[in-house]
Amino acid sequence: MDRFGAVLEECSLLDLGYIGPWFTWEKGRFSSTNIRERLDRGLANNAWWDLFPDYQLRHLAHSFSDHCPLLLNIGKNSAAPNRIWHFRFESAWLLEDSCAPEVERLWNSSVGDFLDRLKHLCLGLDAWFKRIKKDKGLTIGDLKARLESLNGLQPTDAVLGEIMEVKLAMNLELDKEELYWE
């Protein structure tokens, strides 16, 4: 560790600090065996700090890994260039119970020739998917918020049990979301 500290000093690297739970690593499911440590850190030199003065480093809620993910936001929003919109039907949408009724509703509510109706369907499905994605994001966000709240409590057996339940629920939602991106 002394050599690591010497490298940090030689490179003028400083700890970025963090927002969120103080620990980044956790082991043990019961209060008697639970260990929490801050093993993972963000480091930067003064030149980096000058480039990104509005940064934030967050310790995010984690599910089944021992380590929590770190999210570095540099504070600058880069504008994405305008893109041409292309519709793509995702087969994962078929896993949603509301997909078939939504297709039927959109098709039946459209007017005009085939291409007009198809365009109406595509735009409607795009909006429907954004709503679904937002709802799933809220669910995952709620679970992450609950997990962060639980991580701030004393790690009793009851709290650690609830943490495991929330992590399981969060993993299930994340697995569903991952199907959309395969």
Major sheet: order of its strands?
1-4
Using only C-alpha atoms, the radius of gyration works out to 23 Å
Instruction: Please trace the helix and strand order, writing H or E for each element.
Output: HEEEEHEEHHH
Helix run count: 5
Number of domains: 2
| Helix share, percent | 40-55%
The fraction of residues in strands falls at: 5-15%
Give the beta-strand count. 6
Q: So what's the overall shape?
A: flat
Low-confidence stretches: 77-81
Major β-sheet annotation? 2 strands, antiparallel
| Cα distance spanning the termini | 41 Å
The structural class is mainly alpha
Describe this entry's structure for a reader:
The protein is mostly helical and 182 residues long. It folds into two domains: 1-82, Deoxyribonuclease I, Chain A (4-Layer Sandwich), CATH 3.60.10.10; 84-182, no CATH class. Helix content is 48%, strand content 10%. The chain has helices at 2-10, 46-51, 99-109, 114-151, 157-180; strands at 14-15, 25-27, 35-37, 43-44, 56-59, 70-73. The strands form three sheets. It has a two-stranded antiparallel sheet with strand order 1-4. A two-stranded antiparallel sheet has the order 2-3. A hairpin with a 7-residue loop joins strand 2 (25-27) and strand 3. Helix 3 runs antiparallel to helix 4 and helix 4 (114-151) packs antiparallel against helix 5 (157-180). The longest helix is centred in the C-terminal third of the chain and has 38 residues, at 114-151. 8% of the residues are buried. It comes from Hibiscus trionum (Flower of an hour). InterPro entries: Endo/exonu/phosph_ase_sf.
